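REVIEWER CHECKLIST
Item 1: Sequence provided? yes
Item 2: Single chain? yes
Item 3: Sequence as submitted:
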Amino acid sequence: MYQLNPLTAHQPKPLSSGASKARPVLKLKPLALFFAALTVSGSALAWQPERPVEFVVTSGAGGGTDTFARTVQSIIGKHQLMDKSIIVSNKGGGSGAEGYVYSASSKDDPYKLTFGTNNEYLLPEVGEMPYAAEDLQPVAAMAMDEFLIWVNGDAEYESAKDFIDAAKQNPGKMQFAGSQSKDTDQTLVSMIEEATGTEFRYVPFNGGSQALVQLAGGHVDANVNNPNENLGQWQAGMIKPLCVFSPDPLPKGEPVYEDKGWGDIPTCQSQGIDISEYRMPRTVWLPAGAPEEAVTYYQELLKKVSETPEWKDYVTRTVQTSQFLSGEELEQYIDNNASTVKKVFEQEGWSAS
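Item 4: Structure as written out by the authors:
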C-alpha cells in the first residue's frame, strides 16, 4: 500500500486572489473511501457461523456436562447471542472419550463445539485412545466443579480429621466409592492417601449417581462427589459433607440440612489434608485446525454467556465456582493441572506412556 510522506508529498499551489477558494475535497474522496472500505471489509470478514452449530456433549443426558451445555444453549437462545441454531449431540461413552473422538475426527471444523472437562487431556494419559489431546484445541473454561469428602449421614465422623484418623487405624479397609476407575475420583482418593499417609480401598461404579446410592445405603464409607450430585441426599440427611477441596470455603447461602449450608463446610486443607485445591473445569473445545477467527468468536460468545444472570443462577444452583478462562490463561491452567495429575498416574502405575 502506498503511503504519503508529509515532507515530500506534492503541495498544491497557492490560490491567486481571483481564484475560487473552494477546497478540492473531490480529490481526497478516493483516499478516504479506500480507508473506509478497509474498515468495512475488516468488519465484514469477522468469522460468524453460516450454518447450525453442533454442541457435542461428552456425557449422557442429564449428566453434569449435559446440564452445562444445555444451560449455555438456553442462554444463547434467550439473549439471541447467535443467529444460527444449535444442535445438541450426547456422546458420553468411555468417560467422554466417544465425544472427543467424534470431534477430533472433524479436523478444521468450526461447527463442532465440544463440551467436556479435563478428561479431554487426561484420558489419553491412562489409556490407548483413538485421539490425542492435541487433536482438539481449547476455547474456554467456564466454571470449576468442586469436590468434597462425603460420608453416610449416620457415620460417627464429625470432621475430616476424625475420618482420616479412623482410616489410619484401619489401613486398606475403609472403602471410597467413585465414578469409574483411573478417573477424577480415584485420582483424588490417591492424592488423599499420599497427603495423609492413609490407605483406602477404592471401589469404582458406573457414574457418580451409583457411587452416591452405595454411600447413602451404607455399603461404602465415603465418596468424593461434586456438590450438585449429592445435594438431594444431604437435604434428606442420608449423607453429610466433611470438607471441600477448595482454597477458600464455599459461598454462604441458605441452610441445606438442619442449620448447615455450603459455606459452613471447612476446607480439607484446614482439616489436615495437605491438598489446597482439586477441581474439575467445565471446558469447551474445537477440533484442531479450526480457524483462529472461529476460536475468538466462540470465546467472545461464551464470555457473554458467563456474564448473564442465568449463568450466575446456574453456578449458584449447582454449587460451582464461576471462573472464565481463555487464551494463554487457559493454556497455563491446563499445563499446571495436567502436570499435577500426571504425577499421580505415574505414581500409581496408570500411565499409558
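Item 5: Key structural point noted by reviewer: The CA atoms of residues 136 and 287 lie 4 Å apart.
Item 6: Recommendation: ____
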